[in-house]
Design a protein that fits this description.
7-stranded mixed beta sheet
Length: about 120
């Protein structure tokens, strides 16, 4: 199973970007898709996730109201809509899928750079 993340780029503060993460390969059995980010000089941080079956979502407080996670189960694709971006959102963003059998984040995308300038 491979996860392909896309949609990163450079924007000014207040701008928007939409990240996508498409899963491909053998039969994909996952309970949820999550987004993480790693800012320069910082540890990787969990951002948001969404359950594949019922669409339940969770966002960390610092992005709540600005970021929206969604999914298209038919396409095995997850999305992270990021609005009102701030310079502190600058990071490499990763998608990860939790395997249904192991309950671990066994699948990771390659990361996509998001840069927000002030």
């Amino acid at each position: 199973v491979q996860l392909q993340a896309s949609g990163g780029g450079s924007v000014q503060a207040g701008g928007s970007l939409k990240l996508s993460c498409a899963a491909s390969g053998r039969t994909f059995s996952s309970t949820s898709m999550s987004w993480f980010r790693r800012a320069p000089g910082k540890e990787r941080e969990f951002v948001a996730d969404i359950a594949w079956n019922n669409g339940n979502v969770y966002h960390i407080a610092s992005v709540s109201g600005r970021f929206t996670v969604s999914r298209d189960s038919a396409k095995n694709t997850g999305y992270l809509q990021m609005n009102s971006l701030k310079p502190e959102d600058t990071a490499i963003y990763y998608c990860a899928a939790r395997d249904a059998a192991t309950n671990r984040f066994d699948y990771w995308g390659q990361g996509t750079q998001v840069t927000v300038s002030s």
